[in-house]
Amino acid sequence: MTTYKDFEDAVQANKDKWDRRFLEMAKLVSTWSKDPSTQTGAVIVRPDKTVLSVGFNGFPKRMQDTPELYADREVKYSRIIHCEMNAVLHSPESVNGCILYTYPFASCDRCAVHMIQAGISRFVFPKLPEDKVERWGEALKKSIAYFNESRVDWTEL
Questions:
Q1: What is the pLDDT of residues 126-145, one digit of tens each?
Q2: What global pTM score does this model have?
Q3: Which of 26, 71, 75, 104 has the most CB atoms lying inside 10 A of its own CB?
């Protein structure tokens, strides 16, 4: 006899399957970034599991986008748009109630507040690689705190 627990387990397994698929898609999108040191990707998915938008970290449209500008950290950080914001800004419709997936790590605290304001209802990301903890760990802790405070579901895979 099938129990409610069996049903819950099957639902969770299906959810995990889709989460992994969309994280793989975010990984692919990250390769489109021209940033030689950190390539990030985002995928925004509607509740019906259809892709709404994608984004990667890069410079704004119509701005110079040369290797020399990416090599200068000060210039790069003043110009770069994070993958999450590119995905939100390029979305053809509201992202309210959607799920946002990022690769290779969770969103910074600045992107988190914008995602919350835009109405992202769930956030999925891979575990922060050890070599990124020193640089990004504190910002990511803030992000998680903001998501918790705002009741945005999040999953670390």
A1: 998 888 888 888 888 999 99
A2: 0.88
A3: 26
